[in-house]
Structures are given as structure tokens and as C-alpha cells.
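Input/output pair, single chain:
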Amino acid sequence: MYDYVIVGGGIVGLATASVLTARSPRARILVLEKETKFAQHQSAHNSGVIHSGIYYKPGSLKATLAQSGNSSMREFCERHGVAFKICGKIIVATEDRELPLLDALYQRAIENNVPVTKLTREQVNEYEPHVACVAGVRVHSTGITNYSDVCRALTCDLQRTGVELRVATEMLQSVPTGQGYQLETTSGSVRTRFLITCAGLHSDRVSTRSGWRPEARIIPFRGEFYELKQERCHLVNGLIYPVPNPNFPFLGVHLTRMIDSSVHAGPNAVLALQREGYSRTSFAFKDTLDTLTYPGFWKLAARYCREGLEEILRSASKALFARSLQRLVPEIESDDLVPIHAGVRAQALMADGSLVDDFLIQQGKRSLFVLNAPSPAATASLEIAKHIAAMVPELESITVAMAAKVSLSTA
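Output:
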């Protein structure tokens, strides 16, 4: 009998195990991961940015946890020797019509207590000499790291503190019992007093297997990246972002100097036909059927049909991808781009076609389900874990409740 079982060994699941074991050192904790290694999907396929929280609605979980996560992630990296750099990022308006959007973003940063500075075109070019723009905003607290390294450090900590870690173990079903849950997995049965699911791309399915009816369905979006050839990396000093299109729920392609000094460009955002489909040809019948039979998807597609078509065309044409980058750095040519990894974003979508904008965490009976944790979840992972722990009863409370139930049944 475990006290806590966490289904999903990505960065949020690992961080949650870390916070729970620090709070309750005597607790028996098990982390289940269906892959042969931890953190193989969203936690490893991302741009490595330590976000500031500038974009998100003031007061939302994304805004508050990203900002506090910016600090806690930096502290974690320092403590564990994980390379990181606080380089700041520049968000630029490339046309006069984007200036009101840039001003609105600046005001949101002020509301979210994110340190920012308005920049003229000349001031932008002091940081990024090759950028073409009319004005910009510098976000001082944005950084860069490698979240795969963060996950490795978390895993080492968990092993040292006695948390049990199982890979190649998929949860097939979980059934409530008088003492918590019994989980059927590909490597046998497991019992737990409290169940936590952090299953990312499969969060809706895993919660359904536990008897929970999630409010939203996961729709996967693939984001494709290119890398600048080494001899062209001098065109980018740090992080360069466009002003987000308010009519589209993604940030747009941007340029990122990674922790290893390579420069990545992207991602775009196209519908993935497989939840773990990292190539254009990836296809899974069940995943595609789940998407195409969901009313919310068609409502979303109708709302963003023009923007969605542009993303599809950009996915099919490196020249169009390069043209998007040229709005930021005109010297970039199509031949400068080398295709690299892609990522798949687990986006929760409501039946009415609205995207779930915030982290979505719901509590069941002796269970808790993380149903939406896209970017900036890696940045905020340690803070999400603290938020989860605050919703989870402590070991002593679980033990007392179980003992009382047994006593009543005996009587």
C-alpha cells in the first residue's frame, strides 16, 4: 500500500513527488511512467525558456505560478548545478499597427509585476543588432535552461530520498476501494491511499480510466523547430519574440539562443494526428478519431480557420517559415535553416470550442487530476507541485481517515 501514487513521470509529476516527499518524509510514494525513461514528451520537447509570466491573465494560475516559478526554477538550477542563463528577451512590434498590442502587453507585465522596459528601435538594436522593428519591450527575468537536465536532477533527488520510480509501466485502470484506489498496470496491481495523475498528452484519458469525467479533451498540436546553421548564429544574441497575434492562441514563431549557444527557430502550431506524433507523417487512428469526433475541435477550427491554414502552409514550406522569421531578422534566409526536433503540445479544449487558458487541476475523492498544464508548466513545475500538495491531504490525515473508516466497518 502506497500513500501517494503519481501517474506520469514528466516534469510536473516528478516535481510533485519531490514536494510531497519533502513535506511527508515517511510517506510511501510511487511514480509510474509508461515510457522507458522519464520526461520523454512535453518536458523534453520544448524551447527551454524560463518564462516570466508576462502573457497571462493577471491573477490566473499561469501568471502567479510562472512568476514564482521563474525564481524557484533558477534556485533549483543553482542548487543542482543545472546550467541556466538569465538573458532576458525582446518582444518587438515590426509594424506601427502592432504598437497598441505592444503597449497592452507592457501594461499586462506591470499588472503581473514582471520587470520590463520599453525600448525604441535604436535601443532594441543595442541588444539585437540584426532585428528589424519599430519598438520593443525587454523582459528582464526571462531565462534559458535545459529541462531534460532539470528532470534528471529531480529524478536523482527522488531516488536519494527513497521515492519508488517505475518506468515502462502504464496505468490501465484505477478502481476506488475502501482504502483509496487499486491500479491495474502493465506490470501488475498497485494500491494507494491517494491518486494523482499528471499524464500530459493523455491526461483526459488517464483521468477517465480513474472514473473522473474531465471537462475538456486534449487536442494535440505539433510545433516544428528549425536550427540556424552555426555560421549564422551571430544574427541572434538572445530571445526574440513577435508581438502575439490576439486572434490566435499561440505565440508565433520566435528565435531562441539555447543554453548550448545554438539558435532555434519556431515553433509553428499545426494539428497533430497522433498525441505523440513528432513527424508530419505520424498518425494514430484512435487519436485522430478522438479529435475529429469532438464538437469542440470543429468549433475551434471554424474560429481560427485562416490562422490555421497559414500554420499548415508554413509547416509545408521552409520558405514560408523563413519569411515569418524575416519579419524579425531580415537577414535570415531559407538556406540558413536546418530542421530539428518537433514538440507536441497537449492543449485542453472545451466542448464549446474554447481553449482552456489556465492550468486546470481538479480534485476527486482521494484523487487529484492535472488536466491542463501546457507552457509555462516547465517553468512553473515546482510551483504547480506546491499548489498540488496544498490540495492533497497530508499523510497523517489520510492515515487517520482510513483508520476511522476501518474502525467503523469493524464496529
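The chain has three domains: 1-87+142-216+356-411, 89-125+133-140, 217-351. The domain at 1-87+142-216+356-411 is CATH 3.50.50.60 (FAD/NAD(P)-binding domain).
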